[in-house]
Structure formats: structure tokens, C-alpha cells
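User: Hey, quick favor. My workstation is busy. Could you predict this chain's structure for me?
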Amino acid sequence: MIRRSINAERVKTADNIDSDVLSFIASTSAEDRYGDVVSQNWELEAYKSNPVILLNHNSNELPIGRGNVEVVDGQLMIDIEFDMGDPKAAEVARKAKAGFLNAVSVGFNPTEIIARADLPEDHYAAGSRGNYYGRSELLEVSIVTIPANSEA
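Assistant: No problem, here it is.
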């Protein structure tokens, strides 16, 4: 499984601070700090049947929430509902709502990988380093402290 983090742009902030749902841009086609580009051609069926939100990709811990994902205008969008009955999840939700945590990350299984150097020169993801993930299966989404992709 590959994990790629991005700075998440909070799409809407809760007018009601008691809201348990925050919306984020979870992935874009921007080059990340590893030199990789992830196409927004996602296989979402597996994730939608198990829509877990983790903290820092730690799959050994229980999820802190669940997510609803869709690709909209070439970006993977997610609405995260935090499990407010879980003290750790409630603390993460509080930090996210207050702006102390602003990044999410996708854990995925790439099903189409091409070295960016092997792409045609006119391809939007052509480059000298990293990979182009043309199609990927989304496995999980995490709230993270340090992102890889600075554009979302």
C-alpha cells in the first residue's frame, strides 16, 4: 500500500463548532514531495464499503471516523465524520476544527504505475523523477500531521 499526504484545503468549516463533520480535498493531481503524481482516476468501491478514517495511517489502532468520498472537478473530496464517542477521535476533531491539523493523506493500492520519465513529453505528469499513478484503489484516508503534497 502506498500512502501520500497532502495539505488539505478545508472546504467548509463548521459554522456550528459542535458539528462532527469536516470536508477536505483529499487528493489532487499535483506533484508531491516524492516527485510522484497521482491521477484522480480512483477505484472507490472498496473504500466505500469500509470508509475508515485513521490517524497518521496507523491501521493498528481503531479508526477515528468514517469518510464519504467522491471525485469532483478532478479532485478527491471527502467529508469526514469523527467518532465523538471516542476520546482520541474527539481530540483529533477538536484540533482539526481549530486549525491545528490541516492535512489528510490517502493510502492506496496503485493499479497502473508508469515512471514519469517514460511518459510522453506532452503528458501533464511528465517529469524527470517519480512515478505517475494512472489508476489507484483507495484503501483508507488519514488525518496526518505532516503532508507530502503541498497543493490541494
